[in-house]
Amino acid sequence: MPSKRYNKLPEGTKDLNPGKIDSILKVVKSNCTTKFDESLDLSLRINNKQKKNEINLRTVVNLPGGTGKSINVAVVCEDNKVQEAKTANADIVGGDDLIEKIKNGDFSFEKLICTPSMMVKLSKLGKILGPKGLMPNPKLGTVTNDIAKAVKESKAGQVEIRNDKDGNIGLSIGKKSFDDEKLIKNYNAVLEAIEKEKSNLTIKGDLVKQIFITSTMGVSYKIKLDKSI
Fold first, then answer.
1. 216 with 35: CB under 8 angstroms?
2. pLDDT at 95
3. How confident is residue 47, by pLDDT bands cut at 50, 70 and 90?
4. Hey, what domains does the chain have and what are their CATH numbers?
């Protein structure tokens, strides 16, 4: 049963005419009536049903304003890379020992980074890591010899953009406490990353069909689309 707080929120907002991000943000924030700092989340629907193939969009974006979240980053690397990872503030660092812990069900991290040579060993855990979205991927910058850069970017506000089988993408662009300028920069960074990926895809028509924004405990609003994507 919806709470009294939720019952006071506007109804039918997702059916309103789409608005520009700067005006919609003010409305979404006004609905953030909980005591905690709610996240502002995007929901995108992409045109992934093509005649010849389905579109599988997967990339990362570095949000210039950060995410407002603290994530635990694990690094699987050789002994000579351990100090580099620790200096970059990785939360968990190891080699074969860490791989064994993961194999036994230790997932006390949200992002996993590894060096190319360790990926050979880590790939054997694909059935465990894959479904959780934790398998390192060179395209996402999580299989690299530049461990310091990968860790720092992950900590600074790097998020993954990935559609599900129905063409939905969900991600956060920050918190209610962020000023509008920071949230708009993060929003634009997401669209720029998607537009960049579009050039690598064979697609007819627009890639993005709809974009909605909502807060953690709020209601959703449709954002006016830039037809370039």
1. no
2. 96
3. confident
4. 11-67+158-222 (3.30.190.20), 73-156 (3.40.50.790)
